[in-house]
Amino acid sequence: MATLKNPPSREYQAYQQLEHWKPYNEILLKKEFSKSKAFSTPLFNFLYEKVKKEYQHVPRRKNDKDAFTHPLNVAMDLIKAKVDDEITICAGLIHDLIEEKVDIFKKKKQLKEDSESASILDQYELKICTELETQLQQFALKNKIPLPKITELIQVVKLLTRHKRHFYYRSISSIFNCQNPKLKERAIQVKLADRIHNIQSIECFKEEELVYQCFKNLFILNNTKKFLQDKYGKKNNPSKGIHPTEKLFKKCCKSTYDAFLTVGGMCLNKNISPVVSMLQLAFHKYAWEKKGSEAVTDVNISENHPMRLFHGIVKKYDAKLHQEKDKFNFMKEQEREYCRRFFRDYHFSEEQISAIVDYKDAFALREITARLLYDPEYVVSNFSCSKLCTRGMVCMKDR
Predict the structure, then answer these.
(1) pLDDT value, residue 392
(2) Contacts for 212 with CB less than 8 Å, ≥ 6 apart
(3) Among 111, 200, 334, 371, which one has the highest count of C-beta atoms within 10 angstroms of its own C-beta?
(4) N-terminal to C-terminal alpha carbon distance within the chain
(5) Could you give phi then psi for residue 5, rounded to 5 degrees?
(6) Can you name the residues that pair with 295 across neighbouring β-strands?
(7) pLDDT < 50 regions, the chain
(8) pLDDT value at residue 396
(9) Interacting residues of 267 by C-beta distance below 8 A, sequence separation 6+
(10) pLDDT digits (tens, 9 = 90+) for 78-133
(11) Is 347 left (phi over 0), alpha (psi -120 to 50) or beta?
């Protein structure tokens, strides 16, 4: 961007506060982190070089970008949010390191999806984690870094590391149910930065998968909103400034909203525009009459109005997140069949019917994301770690 000759106007300064963050698609050099206090520390520099070396063995990302761009984006987004804690920024650099090494090991050994393989991966993960902790402790002693700092860093990384036998909900729940307030907030900050970059890297996804990726963000955002309410209160106080966690929450909301818009555009390209207005109004009727955006709701199969399409969206993607494929496919087919019958005059193809379902999901969840962003008191009830993780099979899956 060209340097402005005149001081920026108030309007432009406001834009800089509100603009949606964009991902860095090239490798960021260490000097580009110089605005952070962490930049000049031996630990940050050591971890930058370590991750750079380790990620040479990690496959390229699904959008064909260098894998090393991900931890760098996470660390940079933490810095942009004004996180000045060295441990948190360093955790951003290595938050996926253990998982990536376990994935490489799994592929190399050609392990299957069964309980025996899960046990082997558990043992290997423990080995990798122990090696990392030992290496960092040795580095700390050599460079006169307090060992408690290394202990705290490893604790954050462990909290962020998803064990291969666990569902996604279990991994996220361990963060939001953590009883150590400082550790919990550090992990939340890194996870938000992680999801910002992940949702910005969606070029290769099709509509249904993209809605699912956005849904994962929405689950995290809803729990973050509750965390923010509990810790900082429900009312905004501009005079106190914006906390880094809130900044990351807002930027993750906006990135998720952008991704939902992308889904909508992809669906509209399949010529479903004649029914879009009806779908949007059906959602608003549903939200107005049923308070459907307030809670996780069941499908009402006796409802003939298209607002029935907005019952159970959270439950549907919850099933997918728990790998309950039959349940997810059953719910989606119910919606598709309703659309075939309701919109029969349009003679939509099966591809268009699928696009209608994906569009209405993206539209509804997009509206919920916006409300999470702008309504200080709003959260989706019954859509939190404590509620959803009471299910019998959430905590562990035997592969």
Answers:
(1) 39
(2) 317, 320, 321
(3) 200
(4) 50
(5) -70, -40
(6) 381
(7) 1, 390, 392-399
(8) 30
(9) 207, 355, 356, 358, 359, 362
(10) 999 999 999 999 999 999 999 999 999 999 989 888 888 889 999 999 999 999 99
(11) left
pLDDT at position 1, please? 46
Match 């360093």 to its residue by tokens: 90
Q: Output the six-digit token pair for 218.
A: 């929405």
Inter-residue contact 48 to 93 (CB < 8 Å): yes
What sign results for the dihedral spanned by CA atoms 202, 203, 206, 207? positive
If DSSP codes are grouped into helix, strand and coil, which group holds residue 161? coil
Q: How many CA atoms lie within 13 A of 206 on its CB side?
A: 5
CA atoms within 13 A on the CB side of 195: 29
Task: Give CA separation, 258 vs 196, 279, 390, in Å.
Answer: 11, 19, 32
Please state the domain extents for the chain: 30-165, 264-388
Comparing C-alpha atoms, which of 83, 93, 121, 89 is closest to residue 105? 121
Characterise 398 by phi-psi region: left (phi > 0), alpha (psi -120 to 50), beta (else): beta
Q: What is the pLDDT of residue 117?
A: 87
The one-letter code for the residue type at 121 is: L
Q: Measuring CA to CA, how many Å separate 288 from each of 169, 294, 313, 319?
A: 30, 10, 16, 26
Q: Which residue has the tokens 């890297």?
A: 201
- Neighbouring-strand partners of residue 381: 295
Look at residue 178 in the predicted model and tell me its pLDDT: 93
Neighbours of 355 (CB within 10 A): 24
DSSP state string for 273-339: GGGHHHHHHHHHHHHHHH-GGGB-----TT--SGGGGGTTHHHHHHHHHTT-HHHHHHHHHHHHHHH
Tell which residue, 132, 147, 148, 144, has the closest CA to residue 100: 132
| CA dist., res. 43 & res. 145, Å (int) | 8
Q: Which letter, b or e, does each residue of 68-91 get, where b requires 16 or more Cβ atoms within 10 Å of its Cβ?
A: bbbbbbbbbbbbbbebebbbbbbb
